[in-house]
Backbone:
């Protein structure tokens, strides 16, 4: 039984998830049961397991994008702990502004907004002033090797790799304590993958916590402090 | 901890045999955008009219926190108070821009009206404020003296938004703001609305049947069907992991949400 | 038909009472439009039926009546209405504004300053100043009740944006006793200042629209304007060609088809008096 300590950013306990597909006669798809782990400051925890084991679902439950059927998701929020599993929408929104950030596998593209504005908006939401936010966005996009001539353009016409770099920059722009990453480097070439790895390592050294899914062995080797085998929490046998 | 900006509690409304709203409750605060989604006949427009004080509920109440901090039951407001609220503290963006504009009055007159209603008596200042807002909603400055019947649909909608926001309201109601507009026009309008919500810290209650609009603009969502709130919560959660059968049906029916 | 076939001043006494009640309400609430049961009159709507009903309700056998139309005693409207009251009331009529106790007017205020005890009755086509912007009667009533007058300034704003100045030159809206906004009937804005703090009682009758309103003596009547576009009285470039007046409202009279024109006082009584005075001076 893990107890929240001052170093813990995230403590997950007894997390269950089952999908009920009402449109298919109510068929139940159990995903995970009794998930438990913690993420500390300055630590990168990687979820491991085959496709379909429930890794992404766990990340989404931590971020509040999926419901948890049971269990607790304790996030260190300022002085106290917030249980994301039972928190109100407003509390989760506040946590997303100030504490945790999520980088999905693909950028969800919205029309008309330039790349730098997307990233700067994330920094503003986390509380920065407009100029500082823009400066931070510029610095992140530079780190991630996105050419300056693309900054003002909406990412809809970018390549997959360029879009993903905007996505990653957005995730990092707010300086959140906990970053949740779902295969962030899958669409990147070696050089850009390296830039991302360095960015993560730097933040980790500065105390940032990471909960991530990486398939690339090399990236794992460089970043993972601990591997959590998600198959240990498989609900399929129980069903 | 102060009261919510707007709190709806147990709202019920029936029209003859039809129960348009059944025991609906929710709260909204500054800086939050709430989408009320549903198909035709779900009761979403009735709900919007109830919380905007345009219709009286059969039971339940709507409470609003005024600028001075006092919390008032909307049904207890005198007509003069309600109108003052609609003029200075609230906005209402109609689906049909013609309902929310004076079609034969110039854009400047439309935007300046609220300022004049609040007592501004300096033509030059009113005109300058109207011109600034025209720019903000991306309408060319040389259209300031043109009446909106000469505008395209998208421009009319943007003018309607400017007219509503000129007094920096805290709460804006929107009824299908992009309904009936061409796709590219919609995109521009949605982008504008998104930006203004973020910039001005508006609280928004938005009625739409379009889940993509809900996802883009709102952080919380209420799914309505047959007058009931079937499911509610964080927008991305309800759209990515819908719990109820109806919400699952709605989400799966859309091509790309 | 002899005068005996009609009640004094045409209307029956009960109708006069009804109209007087409306007038009393109007006087009690300056600038507020009081609905009244406008009667069928022996002239069509648009010919002053409202003004005629007000005059008929207040006329007494000792009154001296003057009727003007656009300032003149001798135009069609004035002549007909004057003849109407001679026939139905037998009262003394005059063209002299100083002598009259009741002056019924269409679209002008006499140049001669009015005094206490006189009543000026205006003929009004559209009494509602908000009608231009708000066609719904239910809404305009609410707006008056709640003093929601922002939209009046929208109209003036439009004028300035279109013409560079407030282009309203007649029926210029004004605020009465700091409360109600009224349409003073299609008098030129030149006349607006005369309504303010006037010693006489001013009554307004709209027959087709069925409204009566009033400005009691010495009531403030302030024309609407903007801080940076204040209300300005019309100024004429020339003086009256007949009497030399420089402070009167002038009509433009076309003399020939070569563009020749002259400006003369619209108020015929005022002009005639000044001409008489001039001749007297010249003779002395």
Residues:
């Amino acid at each position: 039984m893990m107890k929240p300590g001052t170093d813990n950013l995230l403590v997950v306990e007894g997390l269950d998830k089952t999908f009920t597909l009402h449109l298919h006669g109510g068929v139940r798809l159990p995903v995970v049961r009794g998930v438990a782990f913690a993420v500390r400051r300055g630590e990168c925890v990687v979820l491991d397991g085959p496709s379909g084991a429930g890794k992404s679902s766990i990340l989404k439950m931590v971020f509040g994008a999926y419901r948890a059927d049971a269990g607790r998701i304790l996030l260190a929020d300022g002085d106290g702990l917030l249980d994301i599993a039972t928190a109100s929408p407003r509390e989760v929104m506040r946590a997303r502004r100030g504490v945790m950030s999520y980088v999905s596998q693909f950028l969800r593209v919205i029309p008309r907004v330039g790349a730098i504005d997307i990233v700067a908006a994330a920094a503003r939401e986390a509380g920065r002033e407009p100029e500082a936010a823009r400066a931070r966005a510029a610095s992140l996009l530079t780190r991630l090797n996105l050419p300056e001539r693309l900054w003002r353009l909406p990412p809809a016409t970018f390549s997959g790799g360029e879009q993903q770099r905007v996505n990653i920059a957005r995730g990092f722009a707010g300086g959140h304590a906990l970053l949740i990453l779902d295969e962030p480097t899958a669409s990147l070439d070696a050089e850009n993958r390296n830039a991302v790895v360095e960015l993560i390592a730097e933040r980790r050294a500065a105390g940032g916590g990471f909960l991530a899914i990486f398939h690339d062995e090399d990236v794992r080797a460089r970043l993972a402090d601990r591997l959590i085998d998600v198959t240990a929490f498989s609900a399929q046998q129980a069903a | 901890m102060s009261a919510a900006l707007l709190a709806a509690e147990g709202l019920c409304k029936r029209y003859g045999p039809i129960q348009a709203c059944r025991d609906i409750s929710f709260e909204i605060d500054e800086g939050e955008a709430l989408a009320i989604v549903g198909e035709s006949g779900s009761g979403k427009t009735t709900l919007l009219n109830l919380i905007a004080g345009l219709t009286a509920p059969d039971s339940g109440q709507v409470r609003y926190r005024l600028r001075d901090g006092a919390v008032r039951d909307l049904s207890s407001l005198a007509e003069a108070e309600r109108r003052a609220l609609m003029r200075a503290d609230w906005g209402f963006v109609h689906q049909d821009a013609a309902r929310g504009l004076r079609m034969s009055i110039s854009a400047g007159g439309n935007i300046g009206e609220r300022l004049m209603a609040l007592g501004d008596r300096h033509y030059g200042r009113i005109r300058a404020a109207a011109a600034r807002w025209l720019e903000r909603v991306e309408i060319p400055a040389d259209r300031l003296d043109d009446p909106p019947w000469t505008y395209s649909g998208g421009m009319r909608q943007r003018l309607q938004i400017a007219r509503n926001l000129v007094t920096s309201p805290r709460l804006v109601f929107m009824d299908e703001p992009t309904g009936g507009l061409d796709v590219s026009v919609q995109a521009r309008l949605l982008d504008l609305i998104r930006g203004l919500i973020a910039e001005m810290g508006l609280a928004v209650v938005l009625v739409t049947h379009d889940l993509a609009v809900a996802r883009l603009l709102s952080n919380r969502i209420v799914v309505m069907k047959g007058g009931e709130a079937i499911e509610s919560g964080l927008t991305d959660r309800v759209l990515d992991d819908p719990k109820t059968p109806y919400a699952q049906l709605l989400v799966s029916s859309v091509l790309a949400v | 038909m002899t005068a005996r076939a009609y009640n004094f001043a045409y209307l029956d006494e009960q109708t006069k009472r009804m109209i007087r009640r409306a007038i009393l309400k109007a006087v009690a609430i300056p600038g507020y439009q009081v609905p009244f049961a406008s009667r069928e009159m022996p002239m069509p709507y648009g010919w002053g039926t409202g003004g005629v009903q007000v005059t008929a309700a207040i006329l007494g056998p000792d009154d001296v009546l003057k009727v003007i139309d656009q300032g003149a005693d001798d135009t069609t409207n004035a002549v007909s209405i004057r003849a109407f009251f001679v026939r139905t009331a037998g009262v003394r009529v005059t063209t002299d504004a100083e002598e009259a106790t009741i002056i019924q007017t269409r679209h002008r205020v006499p140049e001669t300053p009015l005094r206490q005890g006189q009543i000026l009755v205006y003929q009004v086509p559209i009494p509602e100043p908000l009608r231009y912007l708000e066609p719904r009667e239910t809404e305009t009533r609410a707006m008056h009740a709640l003093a929601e007058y922002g939209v009046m300034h929208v109209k003036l704003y439009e004028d300035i944006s279109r013409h560079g100045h407030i282009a309203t030159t007649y029926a210029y809206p004004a605020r009465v006793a700091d409360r109600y906004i009224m349409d003073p009937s299609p008098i030129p804005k030149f006349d607006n200042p005369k309504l303010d703090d006037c010693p006489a009682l001013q009554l307004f009758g709209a027959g087709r629209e069925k409204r009566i309103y009033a400005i009691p003596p010495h009531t403030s009547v302030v024309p609407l304007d903007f801080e940076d576009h204040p209300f300005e009285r019309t100024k004429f470039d020339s003086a009256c060609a007949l009497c030399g007046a420089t402070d009167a409202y002038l009509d433009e009279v076309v003399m020939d088809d070569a563009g020749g024109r002259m400006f003369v006082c619209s108020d015929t009584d005022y002009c005639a008096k000044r001409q008489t005075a001039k001749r007297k001076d010249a003779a002395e």
Observations:
- The first helix of chain B runs from residue 44 to 51.
- The beta strands of chain B are 6-15, 18-28, 33-38, 59-65, 71-73, 90-93, 171-175, 203-208, 220-225, 228-234.
